[in-house]
Design brief:
By secondary structure, this protein is an alpha+beta fold. About 35% of the residues lie in helices and about 25% in strands. It is built from 3 helices and 5 strands, in the order αβαββββα. A hairpin with a 4-residue loop joins β3 and β4. The two termini are about 15 Å apart.
């Protein structure tokens, strides 16, 4: 996170891990949108169609590297 804050890291895509497998895309996006609506332009939550549940991770692309820091602070733990 320090590299982003120091302007040395410009990556914007985040992998969110350890998502409870019964979370739906709607549930996760509602949680993210509570504090981060309009801060991302791509979201992907893979679904295991056989079991009708997510596979435990998602990808989100924030529109600014600084938004990665706020997302991390919000979802960590």
């Amino acid at each position: 996170m320090r590299a982003i804050l120091d302007g040395q890291d410009f990556r914007t895509t985040v992998m969110i891990k350890n998502i409870p497998n019964k979370y739906t895309q709607k549930m996760l996006l509602e949680r993210i949108d509570e504090r981060h609506a309009d801060r991302y332009d791509f979201f992907y939550l893979p679904i295991d169609l056989k079991n009708s549940c997510n596979v435990g991770y998602a990808f989100i692309n924030m529109i600014d590297p600084l938004f990665v820091v706020t997302l991390y602070d919000d979802l960590d733990g």
